[in-house]
Specification:
By secondary structure, the chain is α/β, with parallel strands linked by helices. It folds into two domains: 203 residues, Rossmann fold; 179 residues, Glycogen Phosphorylase B (Rossmann fold, 3-Layer(aba) Sandwich). It has 15 helices and 13 strands. The strands form two sheets. The protein has a seven-stranded parallel β-sheet with strand order 3-2-1-4-5-6-7, with helices on both faces. It is globular, with a radius of gyration of 21 Å.
Amino acid sequence: MKTQDIHVGVDATSWINDRGFGRFTRELITALAARDAGFRYTLVFDRPPEFDLPDNVEIIIAQTHNSLNDAAVGDKSRSFGYLMKMGEVVRKAKFDIFFFPAVYSYFPLLARVPCVVCYHDTTAERIPHLLFPTKMNRRLWQLKTALAKLQTARAMTVSRSSARDLEHILRIPKSKIDTVSEAADPIFRRIENPQKVEDAKQKFKIPADAEYMMTLGGMNAHKNILSLLKAMPAIVEEHSQVHLVIVGDTSGKGFWDNVPELQKFTADHPALQSRVHFTGYIDDADAALLLNGAAALAFPSLWEGFGLPAVEAMSCGAPVLASNRGSLPEVIGDAGLFYDPENIDEITACAVKFFGDPALRQRLTEASIARAREFTWDNAAVLAELSFRKCAEGKRRT
């Protein structure tokens, strides 16, 4: 097998998922397909794709009875038949290597094809009680991860923090771990037309004179938005103009989110009712506009493997007031302020300091834009290709 002939099969079942690993799949594969680096990509779907795909890729459709996206709601899971069908399709395709962009969507392969599996984080191992609605869900995750490790020729991850966790928590040898990165979609950028920003604020009923922090992304318990809400009364007491805009799906379709708890806490505290704004799910264009109007992104997560919303915010010139755990200090660098996410007083003090110091805010805004430029999907693609080559070379040696 020549280097230029490497045929990479890709698990594309998470392509339409709106969580971080879905975006990672779309953006990384699009960047890889745009390069002429000696790889051929075939995307394996469980259902026919009803959306645009990048040029220079082939597709295979397994035509399963259910889909990964169906199983992403509530406590549902994929059927045994689904898993076997996906594995059989990959076996028949005879790829040189196979790439799982997220262990979340892993299925056992009925073939000896070497695999690159991306383990985005070890949040499920660190705080399982916040991620799984039932013990069965947790056991299934543990089984899936164990099987994935057995078929992992190269383990990919998205930060140095996660790489350490793969080594020390999942017990994957350091020699098998490859670190890539993530980046913001180009739609996340500075908007020069202030009226567009004001129109977006009006659309989502954010007062024109509000200075607001914004959260963006998942609404699960480990995202720790409740702690931010608990800090809000004391923040508002010091800076009466501060609002909180919570951007994320409030439909109840998310996997075991705690939206009802967040909404109840807000409703139970009259002082917050005019200060906290739930936008529901919004598209990237609106999210970028709201980030351009935000004073900062608030990111109190208990653990992250990368933290893509931070890079999206920084690309729009919004500093990040972030948890000091996981990958966030690594990704944000000098473009934010940090706190212990389980200490309400520290969250409060961080926000109070930020809103009370105009010079600090200006410095962090400038640092945010510079920091965001360091993350590109093309760089991530180059690193992913190195991982694929190591995987293919390992196959040749066996």
